[in-house]
Amino acid sequence: MTLAIVLTTDETAGLADRLAGQCRRAGIDEVRQVGDLATLADLAEWAAGPVLVTGADLVAHTAVLRHLATSPAEPTVALVLAGPPGPGRTAVREDRGQVVAAGSPEALDGEATGVFGGALRVDPANLPVLVAAARSIAAEVVPVGAAAAQGVVDDEPAIDKLFADLVSRDAVTFAHRVRLLVARRVAADDDRAAAEAAVAAVDADRAELRLSVKERDDFFTTVFVSTWSPYVTKLAARLRLSPTTVTMISVAFAVTAALLFGAGGRPALVTGAVLLYLGFVLDCVDGQLARYTRTFSAWGGWLDTMADRAKEFIVYAGLGFGATQAGFRYGWALAIAAMAVQTVRHMTDTWYGALHDEAARRPRATTGGGLGDRLSAASNRVQADVGSVTYWLKRTVVFPIGERWALTALVVALFDQRAALLAVLTGMVLAFGYTAALRLLRARSMRVGVLNTVETTLHRDDGPLARALPTPRWTGPLGLAASAVLVVAVLLGLALIGGDALPRWSALVALGGLLLAAAGARASHGGALDWLVPAALRAAEYLFAIAVGVLGGAPAWLIFGYVFVLTLHHYDLTARLEKRKLAPPWHEATLGWEGRSVVLTLSAITGIAAVGMATLGMYLLVVFVGSVALAWVIQPARAARAAGSVGGVGGRPPG
Fold it and tell me: Which range marks the domain in which residue 541 is found?
């Protein structure tokens, strides 16, 4: 249940009543008007859900309050407006969507990117920080008389003082911009009249529909999808389709396209390409529908992430099968390579993004200068020049999903499945090389670690064997992981070249290299480049599974299926990182990457590689499905029943 608190004074009572009414129309369960921060602290301390705090000087569309209250960002979201801050207002500096500093323009040394809009939403995780900040400010000595009665501290509105204090306490705060809607803070009747006129001049529903489209997206999506997808979003809203339903329809389109690619023939390939494009449109629409209808959920976000990857890899399976059926010997090999390369790329994307966010929260002293800093500055300049040729080149060269699907659809329609796989794999490799080179340089200049700030063992995906091994002192975890990749790559190369001549026990030698990487499980992961460890371990495990499959004569489609199950497991971990969720309920049952590799090694040595891979893959799939059901269906249902059984327990302070 969301609580809205409007900080009011005698002079702003009229606006406060209006804001309270807007909060109720925005769907907020309970609205309270208070005149001091001490009362606000008492209310927030007893709150069971998110708390929306706003000053009474805000004039805005009701949609602005609804968007702020329902923002999927967590744990704190603050309204940020454009323009220089006026007298008594708080300036903010943002980095990657986070508010990293707040205070007077002088304190920000001319680096302000916006001004605090007088409203913020605080999730339960940050309520203790909000309570502490409010009580700290309330306890300060303030001017007596009218200033104190109006909730002003040192000639600064209480809401501004509260927000700046919250940011200074390192509460992770994301910026929420209004873009096409109107939000203004007013200081006089003339300001209020002008602000209300500006609000009335904007069609809120039309603006919300346009706002459902991402502000910055990739070239293909922006030009060939977002120009007309809002009409589909509006239709889906009128039909009362949920974002999850749209996601499932998108999956059906992709699966049908994959089946057509597998069948082959020009009509099937062209039809599959069209369905692939339409499926991508729906993939955009599900997010737009969630933003338009404000129906966000952790389950929906997780499902969207997992469905995107599953769809893409199912399409690669269809292309691989179709290429093989058409007489190309290495169709499945290309499909496996595309899936593995793309997953490892995504692992680096995830952890580099986390590293960048961590660096944004650190003092500027963490930057090391040099080439990395110059590259960061150049990248920021390009990103700021929205719509320029360099801006679009930068967004396209990383080969995002829109460009991958567009290239796949175009090439398969014009040529065949083999050409499509070769084209998309080439694009992935080139993009991987480009991004890896730049990120390595920039990461060194940041001089921060990120893997050591989370549950390292979980995101390394270590099992009990890795946790039991002693930690070597002669190198760090990244060096061990890179060595494992090299050893396994050599085994795969020998297996592909030597074929049946390579003895099965050679898998045991490669396993030794893998276990070296496993020995780094308990080492410190605070190095500037240790964010690469998860991606390196994924690469090592995938290469080892492929090598064992080749060595043991397993069918190529079985190798693809096994690696596909592994990618689901690993994407589950990254999705949980992004959604700030706990480990999967049955994570220990997955054996860890080194435990799974031991099982494959034993099956290869005993001559049952295909049986071992199939059995282990089915087992992991059952564990994955069971964890999903337990985490997203059974446990939430139990929690809801428990909450219902204790309904009415507790209460709020009087007043």
Answer: 458-646
